[in-house]
Design a protein that fits this description.
The chain is an alpha/beta fold. Helix content is 46%, strand content 15%. It has a seven-stranded parallel β-sheet with strand order 3-2-1-4-5-6-7, with helices on both faces. The longest helix is centred in the middle third of the chain and has 29 residues, at 94-122. It is globular, with a radius of gyration of 18 Å. It comes from Yoonia algicola. Belongs to the short-chain dehydrogenases/reductases (SDR) family.
């Protein structure tokens, strides 16, 4: 039976690559995203709806609609995230803090709250929550993002203990810097601020990992596929870094 896979923010960036990887293997893939145009470009085998994950009712409606169409959920991937405010702690704005946590953390609770009873009835399932290496290290001037990503790991480990007796596995993935449009913008902005080239900034960031490069989106997608497969049927409650082994940390 084809896996039934739900992915938040699944029409662009890492989420799109994850969705396409599952679809290529014959899975039924159901995504949400807030980008109308990106949703229109989804390949065959991927169904999507426009949803703001900070809208609790809209997110719940998306989940229930997917469950009605697919008849269940085998894999839930919480991929939605935003960078949040980048300022010293004394300059943090409470509204921006709450928005960062709403996207990066609260949305994961809402989806897990809806999907857990379904997976309990099935006595099977895999939940994968996207954290970050910012959930493993302190990140100066990125307190909202780091706090949310640390919380994702705590949330994941907790629900792993709750859901494990029902045969449900819960893991967190912690990417480092990942190649793509978002990191290109980060490199360009920092290069401009520092008066250097984007290549200089890339080399600075890449030198912080033992493998001296960024992750590729496909490498995140492949780990998702592994964690939701029978090959990982005894892997749960883990926070797994895909970062080339961080030696010197740069917040991403």
């Amino acid at each position: 039976m084809a896996q039934r896979v739900f992915i938040t923010a699944g029409a662009g960036g890492i989420g799109k690559v994850i969705a396409e990887t599952y679809a290529a293997q014959g899975a039924q893939v159901y995504v949400c995203d807030q980008d109308h145009r990106a949703l229109e470009s989804l390949r065959d085998g991927i169904t999507g709806s426009c949803v703001d994950v900070t809208d609790e009712a809209a997110l719940d409606d998306w989940l229930q609609a997917g469950l009605a169409v697919l008849g269940g959920c085998d894999v839930l991937i919480n991929n939605a995230g935003i960078a949040g405010q980048a300022d010293p702690v004394e300059a943090l704005d409470l509204a921006q803090w709450k928005k960062c946590l709403a996207v990066n953390l609260d949305a994961q609770m809402i989806t897990c709250r809806a999907i857990a009873p379904v997976m309990k009835r099935q006595k099977s399932g895999a939940i994968i929550n996207l954290s970050s290496t910012s959930g493993l290290f302190g990140a100066p001037f990125r307190a909202p993002y780091a706090a949310a990503k640390w919380a994702v790991i705590g949330f994941t480990k907790t629900i792993a203990t709750e859901l494990g007796p029902y045969g449900i596995r819960c893991n967190a993935i912690c990417p480092g810097a990942v190649s793509g449009d978002r990191m290109d913008r980060v490199l360009a902005a920092e290069a401009q601020a520092r008066g250097v080239t984007p290549q200089d900034v890339f080399e600075d960031y890449a030198s912080g990992s033992s493998l001296r490069r960024f992750a590729e989106p496909e490498e995140i997608a492949q780990l998702c596929v592994y964690l939701s497969s029978d090959a990982a049927k005894f892997v749960s409650g883990q926070a797994i870094a895909v970062d080339g082994n961080t030696e010197t940390y740069h917040s991403v």
